[in-house]
């Protein structure tokens, strides 16, 4: 039987991005070699703030077309101390997500075996959420401008965009995700009491699409109250859908409540599969620890597992997560999780677990 080869474009980017992506490639390659059920071919793209400083561009001409030749994109992080954040974000990450219509940003959160939540009485299993972030418009639509720059009467606008088209597609994706999980419950996060146009459309479309999903319970929550519920009643939440900015904020809180931002993964999906989807750890460039070899590679491993799931390699994805959790449970943890292990020690241990799994076959 011939095995499928998945072509993965890697963009390590800035800060700890190159360290964790290199750990991710090591683990993925080992998994593919050990299981023998699929193959991976990596192509590396050096698009970063360094490239930008040298060439004036994050993405060279024709770069997006090259990316489209791949089945998936594995992304590290972007952001440098000497480049304004809005330039790096719009130059690289959003310059990929938006044209490639990766409109569904998926952020699963749970407490991995061997890690703990800062919440009292919250063990693995008590917190198991998927946050779906609208990833193409909303508060990140890039609409707005500045006039009278530098004058006391300077003004700036930042307009959030909510289109029926984009709200409908993200709601449909969110209901489908909720339906695929045992509890079949979707919490629609809103702020329609204060944001009386876009967010009211958001709520109305959620209710309309919800009619197609009679088996999924539709639960509504204002974003401010949602933060309290996440901290006080984590077990009452399952699948969540929120606007670009609301979900950005809620997902950092979610990662912290689950133990560390060093373990949290993200998928930027084009559910139509016309374009490759992009997978990245949630954490940023982390300059305080860049180059020290102590970054937590677990977020990238979990991200790699999400990528394998999307590529249809669900058994391999499960084995990868099993190996990662066994290593965490054994107490080999990086600093963000209260341990002393290095990136390399965690990576080597995960590779050993993968090889043990392979020996069982
Ligand atoms: C995220 C990040 C980005 C965002 C930053 C780096 C601009 O926080 O992916 O959540 O706000 O989208
Ligand atoms: Mg964020």
- Whole-number total of structural domains: 2
Beta percentage is 15-25%
- Note the run of SSEs as H and E: EHEHHEHEEEEHEHEHEHEEHHH
Question: Main sheet, how many strands, which sense, barrel?
Answer: 10 strands, mixed
Q: In one word, what is the shape?
A: globular
Helix proportion range: 25-40%
Mean pLDDT: 95
CATH architecture of the largest domain: 3-Layer(aba) Sandwich
Distance between the termini: 17 Å
Helices, by number, come to: 11
Low-pLDDT ranges: none
In this entry the ligands are: 3-isopropylmalic acid, magnesium ion
Strand order of the largest sheet: 2-1-3-12-11-4-5-10-8-9
CATH superfamily of the largest domain: Isopropylmalate Dehydrogenase
User: Radius of gyration over alpha carbons?
Assistant: 20 Å
Quote the CATH topology of the largest domain: Isopropylmalate Dehydrogenase
Q: What's the CATH first level of the largest domain?
A: Alpha Beta
Family: Belongs to the isocitrate and isopropylmalate dehydrogenases family.
Enzyme class: oxidoreductase
Domain Isopropylmalate dehydrogenase-like: 7-350
GO molecular function: D-malate dehydrogenase (decarboxylating) (NAD+) activity; magnesium ion binding; NAD binding
Overview of this protein structure:
The protein is α/β, with parallel strands linked by helices and 361 residues long. It has two domains: 1-109 and 259-360, Isopropylmalate Dehydrogenase (3-Layer(aba) Sandwich); 117-129 and 136-258, 3-Layer(aba) Sandwich (Isopropylmalate Dehydrogenase). It has helices at 17-35, 49-55, 63-67, 85-97, 164-179, 198-210, 223-232, 244-257, 298-310, 314-329, 343-359, and strands spanning 4-13, 38-44, 72-77, 104-110, 128-134, 138-147, 155-161, 185-190, 217-222, 239-242, 265-269, 277-281. Strands 2-1-3-12-11-4-5-10-8-9 form a ten-stranded mixed beta sheet, with helices on both faces. It is globular, with a radius of gyration of 20 Å. The protein binds 3-isopropylmalic acid and magnesium ion. Magnesium ion is lined by residues 248, 252. Magnesium ion binds next to helix 8.
């Amino acid at each position: 039987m011939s095995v499928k080869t998945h072509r993965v474009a890697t963009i390590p980017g800035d800060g700890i991005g190159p360290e964790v992506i290199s750990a991710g490639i090591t683990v993925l390659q080992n998994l593919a070699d050990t299981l023998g059920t699929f193959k991976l071919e990596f192509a590396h793209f050096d698009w970063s703030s360094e490239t930008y400083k040298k060439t004036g561009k994050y993405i060279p001409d024709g770069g997006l077309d090259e990316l489209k030749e791949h089945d998936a994109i594995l992304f590290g992080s972007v952001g440098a101390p000497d480049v304004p954040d809005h330039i790096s974000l719009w130059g690289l990450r959003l310059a990929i997500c938006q044209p490639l219509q990766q409109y569904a940003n998926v952020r699963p959160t749970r407490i991995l075996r061997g890690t703990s939540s800062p919440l009292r009485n919250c063990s693995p299993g008590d917190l198991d959420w998927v946050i779906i972030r609208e990833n193409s418009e909303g508060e990140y639509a890039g609409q707005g401008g500045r006039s009278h720059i530098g004058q006391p009467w300077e003004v700036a606008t930042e307009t959030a965009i909510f289109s029926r088209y984009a709200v409908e597609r993200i709601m449909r994706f969110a209901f489908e995700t909720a339906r695929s999980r045992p509890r079949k419950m979707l919490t629609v996060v809103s702020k329609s009491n204060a944001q009386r146009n876009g967010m009211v459309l958001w709520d109305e479309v959620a209710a309309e699409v919800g009619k197609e999903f009679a088996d999924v319970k539709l639960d509504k929550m204002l974003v401010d109250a949602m933060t309290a519920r996440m901290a006080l009643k984590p077990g009452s939440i399952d699948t969540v859908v929120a606007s670009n900015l609301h979900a950005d904020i809620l997902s950092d809180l979610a990662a912290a409540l689950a133990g560390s931002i060093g373990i949290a993964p993200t998928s930027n999906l084009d559910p139509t599969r016309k374009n490759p989807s992009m997978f990245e750890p949630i954490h940023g460039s982390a300059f305080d620890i860049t180059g020290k070899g102590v970054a937590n590679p677990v977020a990238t491993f979990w991200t790699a597992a999400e990528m394998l799931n999307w590529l249809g390699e669900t058994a391999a994805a499960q084995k990868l997560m099993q190996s990662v959790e066994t290593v965490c449970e054994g107490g080999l943890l990086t600093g963000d999780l209260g341990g002393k292990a290095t990136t390399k020690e965690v990576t080597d241990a995960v590779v050993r677990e993968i090889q043990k799994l392979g020996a069982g076959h």
